[in-house]
Amino acid sequence: MTLRDTPPFRADHVGSLLRPRRLLDARQQRADGKIDADELRAVEDDAIRDVVRMQREVGLRSATDGEFRRTSWHMDFIYRLGGIHPTSEKIQVHFRNAAGELDFESAALAIDGPVRLNETIFGDDFTFLNGIVGDGVTAKLTIPSPSMVHYRGGMAAIDPAVYPDHEQFWSDLSAAYAEQVRRIAALGCRYLQLDDTSLAYLNDPAQRALLNQRGDDAEHQHLRYIKQINAAIADRPAELAVTTHMCRGNFRSSWAAEGGYDFVAEALFSELAVDGFFLEYDDERSGGFAPLRFVPPGKMVVLGLVTTKRGTLESKDTLKRRIDEATKYIPLEQLCLSGQCGFSSTVEGNVLTYDEEVAKLRLIVETAEEVWG
């Protein structure tokens, strides 16, 4: 089995990592006005140096900054797009876990101006990361996909005076993303991940029912999202690998949606023009591997078999057995291994310890080495 020198790697990870206590304390001090922005950034820089060192030491070929400068995996990016602002209204997303239920609340967004790219979002953050990863490790940038700008609010979030023609909204959105992709590639980015919960949520009949209730066409929405993502990445340079990650929600070890990939699989895997798919497969909520039969030759699938929602360590034998099950539908050559999601999609993080996080990442690396060599 061949070693992979390009992303995604045989042992990989989604991106977000548990924030250390000193970073959380510094964020609170900044919120309280006790330190300034430069002082907070210095703490962030030190924490990122440490977490990049950890990723190297466990044997990963890719490294992120853990999303340490963000509060959430997606809104920190989306609110920096021109024409998009938070509102005083609140959106509640219902989550659940083995112990019960909880809600995540965030500001609703309004698209009240033409969508555009005013700055290279996370540009300085990526430049810092790229400068410290060292030889043999690829700096990976994670951003929310274009779909996430639309999914939470739908067309109701768009000011009809700004976009009487919804096709112009979609065109502007993909153009803004295309410019972001061009700019980060110019900064040296060779590994970009588009995080997209919507394409996983749409497999859940309950989620589709909610979208239909608000007036969206839930039965075909994934086709629109695929089209817009493809437009955003169509002109990327050949040396930039682009993957997408899909999960069913990840907030304090809880999830929001359930269901296999069957509803979106044929269109998603055959039409989405990414180089690889990070797929959540840590438990029965994600369904079986049969949808992988639609993945064409040359596309990689990163099996998210290791859960990031709890600290209990999976066995290598179980992981190998599940990889073997997946090969009934897709060749082993097209597979990689990762966690099912990040460890800290929001600043609060999932319910496990730093040592458990490190053990999970090391398990991924060691298992991949034994499977693929």
Would you write up a description of this structure?
The protein is built from 12 helices and 10 strands. By secondary structure, the chain is α/β, with parallel strands linked by helices. α1 runs antiparallel to α2 (37-58) and α6 (166-186) runs parallel beside α9. The mean pLDDT is 93.
Mean pLDDT, as a whole number?
A: 93
Count up the helices: 12
The unreliable regions are none
Form type:
globular
Taken as a percent bin, the fraction of beta residues is 15-25%
Number of strands: 10
Helical content (DSSP H or I, runs of 4+): 25-40%
Order of helices and strands: HHEHEEHEEHHEHHHEHEEHEH
> Major sheet, described briefly?
6 strands, parallel
Secondary-structure content class: alpha/beta
The largest sheet has its strands arranged as: 5-6-7-8-9-10
What's the N-to-C terminus distance? 7 Å
What multimeric state do the chains show?
single chain
Features:
about 375 residues; alpha/beta; six-stranded parallel sheet; two-stranded parallel sheet
